[in-house]
Design goal:
By secondary structure, the chain is mainly alpha-helical. The protein contains six helices and no strands.
């Protein structure tokens, strides 16, 4: 009888141990699942934070670009008035419309380069505007070149209207410096 009680007690202890091991295993599984879920949520929060920072940075870049565009446009207005060029009639930003108008006029009429050369030579305000525009546009392109890791953005601006206009103004300025009138 005592042997039966001892075996029964050992059996009960064994069953309790199995039950405890089962509860420990299920608890471990749940803790592992909670850990995976928390890790996944943490990674999502980091991605959301990164996205928000990128959007904030993009907004800051857009605001700074707008200030740069306005500054460049302010230098173009007296030049356009002096060489009698109208901006493009498009829905682009006013800077790109102005540059497009200048470059379109030059494409249609190469005499626009001569008009600009004369204005640079004879009108100090136009010469100052050309110098300011060229300095600011060049600084902007240099900044893009140093901050753009893959060079796509800086190449876009350099090959686009901004780069073309810099070449056009540099030619006119060089011609004005070479000729005596």
């Amino acid at each position: 009888m005592q042997d039966t009680l001892i075996i029964a007690a050992i059996g009960i202890v064994f069953l309790v141990q199995i039950a405890i091991l089962y509860f420990i295993y299920t608890t471990n599984t749940r803790v592992r699942d909670v850990t995976k879920t928390l890790t996944h949520q943490y990674n999502l929060i980091v991605k959301i934070q990164s996205t928000l920072k990128n959007k904030s940075a993009t907004n800051a870049v857009a605001e700074n670009a707008e200030m740069i565009y306005q500054d460049l446009l302010q230098n173009l207005i007296p030049i356009m008035a002096a060489i009698d060029v109208m901006p493009r009639a498009t829905s682009e930003h006013p800077l790109w419309r102005a540059l497009g108008g200048i470059m379109d006029e030059y494409a249609k009429n190469p005499f626009a380069l001569e008009k600009l050369r004369r204005c640079i030579k004879l009108d100090a305000e136009v010469a100052r505007s050309v110098d300011n525009y060229m300095n600011r546009a060049d600084a902007f392109l240099n900044h893009l070149t140093t901050t753009d890791p893959d060079g796509i953005l800086s190449a876009t601006f350099t090959d686009g209207l901004l780069g073309q206009s810099l070449t056009f103004f540099a030619q006119a300025k060089q011609l004005a410096a070479q000729t005596t009138e």
